[in-house]
Write a structure and sequence with these properties.
Order of helices and strands: HEEHHEEEHEEEEEHEEEHEEEEH
Distance between the termini: 12 Å
Radius of gyration: 18 Å
CATH superfamily of the largest domain: Diaminopimelate Epimerase, Chain A, domain 1
Largest sheet: 17 strands, mixed
Number of strands: 17
Helix content: 10-25%
Number of domains: 2
Strand content: 35-45%
CATH class of the largest domain: Alpha Beta
Length: 278
């Protein structure tokens, strides 16, 4: 981090999308350099601030801003749908605009004001090639050679979706980490358990790699919607009920659009003393 930050503290924001919570640092103003140890310390809900993911905002020559994401264990994540939506909402309000573009490792993502307090983000097309997910070997993505025959989908990060009779009956705390580290996923994977409520409605629970159980996940919701449509369980436009609430996913020709609420909870400053202890 910069010498100014070390002396004056580091501003941050706390946001959440459907209970999937984030710390957001705007490095455009501070020049802050976020490291894995800093991310892990910030993620501690007892000694830090606490988050499911950390997002760092940077300037970009072609987009309105660029985002870098960290998981709670300090590892990098290529994408985070709910954080992208929350930051898009905050930036649109700040600029007083109804649309903008954000760069992540997925490329340039479009965000628009969907009205009624909702924000839509195009999370890009799904990755449906085993190398791109990535998987360790060439297998049927729609029926992986794993008990339960889950579906693999790439949304900038890997996803493994199980369709079950009752998602709420799954022991997510046990099954999540076991599947996160399955050898078929060399970069680990996010894990979802979902069941069909209706032709345009799914119930889903999620274990996120590097974080654990979360109340919601935007990229996981996109992956589940794609998996359900590929399996013929639903259409391409669905409502997904997560532990934290409902999100709308629409798999269009130009990508997977995610629509949901966003909340900026509070802003604060990490003290120089705390930063010095990290």
């Amino acid at each position: 981090m910069s010498s100014d930050t070390a002396q004056t503290g580091l501003p941050f924001m706390k946001m959440h999308g459907l209970g999937n919570d984030f710390v957001v640092i705007d490095a455009r103003e501070t020049g802050a350099e976020v490291t894995a140890p800093l991310a892990r310390a910030l993620a501690d809900r007892h000694r830090g601030v606490g988050f499911d993911q950390l997002a760092v905002i940077h300037a970009d020559d072609e987009a309105d801003l660029r985002l870098v994401f960290f998981n709670a264990d300090g590892s990098l994540s290529a994408t985070c749908g709910n954080a992208t939506r929350c930051i898009a909402r905050w930036e649109m309000d700040r600029r007083r605009v109804a649309a903008l573009t954000l760069r992540t490792e997925r490329g340039l993502l479009a965000a628009v004001d969907a009205g009624g307090g909702l924000t839509s983000v195009n999370m890009g097309p799904p990755v449906l090639d085993w190398r791109g997910v990535p998987l360790a070997e060439d297998v049927d993505l729609d029926h992986l050679p794993i008990p339960g025959a889950p579906v693999a989908t790439g949304m900038g990060n890997p996803h493994c979706t199980f369709f079950v009779a009752d998602a709420e009956a799954v022991d997510l705390a046990a099954e999540g980490p076991r599947m996160e580290h399955h050898p078929l996923f060399p970069e680990r994977t996010n894990v979802q358990f979902a069941h069909v409520i209706g032709p345009d409605h799914l119930r889903m629970r999620v274990w996120e790699r590097g974080t654990g159980i979360t109340l919601a996940s935007g990229s996981s919701s996109c992956a589940v919607a794609v998996a359900a449509a590929r399996r013929g369980l639903t259409g391409r436009r669905v409502r997904i009920t997560l532990d934290g609430g409902d999100i709308l996913i629409d798999w269009r020709e130009d990508g997977v659009w995610m629509t949901g609420p966003a909340a900026h909870v509070f802003s604060g400053v990490l003290t120089p003393a705390w930063l010095g202890s990290v």
